[in-house]
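Hi team,

As requested, here is the filled-out complex form for the Double cubane cluster run. I kept the field names the same as last time so the parser does not choke. Let me know if anything looks off before we queue the next batch.

— J.
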Amino acid sequence: MSNNNLPEIFETFNDARKKGFITMKEEKDKGRNVVGTFCTYTPKEVIYAADAIAVSLCSTNDETIPEAEKYLPKNLCPLIKSSYGFAITDKCPYMYFSDIIVGETTCDGKKKMYELLGEIKDTHVMQLPHSRNEFSIALWQNEIKELIKRLEKKFNVTITEEKLKESIKLCNEERKIIKEFFNLGKLIPSPIKGSDMHEALQASNYKFDRKLYMEEIKKLVDTLKEKHEKGESPFTKNTPRILITGCPTGGLVDKIIKQLEEVGSSVVCFESCVGTKSFEMLVDENKDPIEAIAERYLNIPCSVMSPNDERMDIIKQYIDEYKIDGVVDVTLSACHTYAVESEKVRRTVEGCGKSYLQIETNYSNSDSGQLRTRLEAFVEML
Ligand code: BJ8
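And here is what came back:
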């Protein structure tokens, strides 16, 4: 097991997705409402203010892709095909238990897939603007108001300003604690493997008792800090340090993150939706809650935004803060926005004098060996 040197508390993150099924069933039996989500742009504060549970429905394996390909083009991002495949085959309990699904018009594939998904599940699609200016903020605020109305009607609840403020506070608290967890990656050497960090972060989507999850993360941070002080780490001071950026990596842990570590590097930072995109930036607690939520979420530096210079700025900042040696930019097949933006990422990384590797892949294991050779050559060069 990869987490030999980790505290016992880490056990609770192992296979959180699988274990979460039981908790979700128990919550449903108690009468809790569930909202399925697909994207970091979904304002979770609104879901919590409706007293509902938010669960990620992004699928991470290729099991249902052949079924999805009966209805969707083969040349489509695996995340979209796999998620739709789980919906039509009824193989994902989280999809099954979701009372409503909230999606956003992010990339073309996802927004068109939601139309089909809407035929089998109650689906609410938020119209996400693709730029950041005063008109976009106004539009996005309106979309947040529409989501509020939809959830109020669906669950027969009232989402008051007070409730929104409470959930803003709760989510901000979570972000601050997770930030402490990210900061472990800045230590030299990092006291935690990137693959283990990834697992603990992904567990966030399937731990429905948020307070308990925060307690677990806090304990993990404290124990790992102690280990660092005692000089314990799976790495040495000279292990090359990697930043992962790009598409969501939930389905690529074995192929990319673990292999990067097996060939001698240390993954210390995730500029992606499992990492900083979900947890950086707080919602301003002193503003009108809807305006503050709209601003925070529109600032997420995803490639569906144009322009998206904020992503380049943040990559430069992380290269400096995490003392990065090399950046691995991961694109899921047929994800055009991340694929095209990779040119700007390359220029940014190389402009900082660091090494850059772009990988395009999907959820199948067929290219694992070939990827290992490329990762090995990259790490050797660092
Ligand atoms: S905020 S990264 S979760 S859109 S589905 S864009 S991989 S072609 S997932 Fe995403 Fe929200 Fe952005 Fe994050 Fe590409 Fe695939 Fe589209 Fe994707």
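Two things worth flagging: The two ends are 27 Å apart (CA to CA). Residues 39-41, 77, 79-80, 106-107, 109-110, 247-248, 273, 277, 300, 302, 304, 332, 335, 337-338 surround Double cubane cluster (CB under 6 Å).

Thanks,
J.
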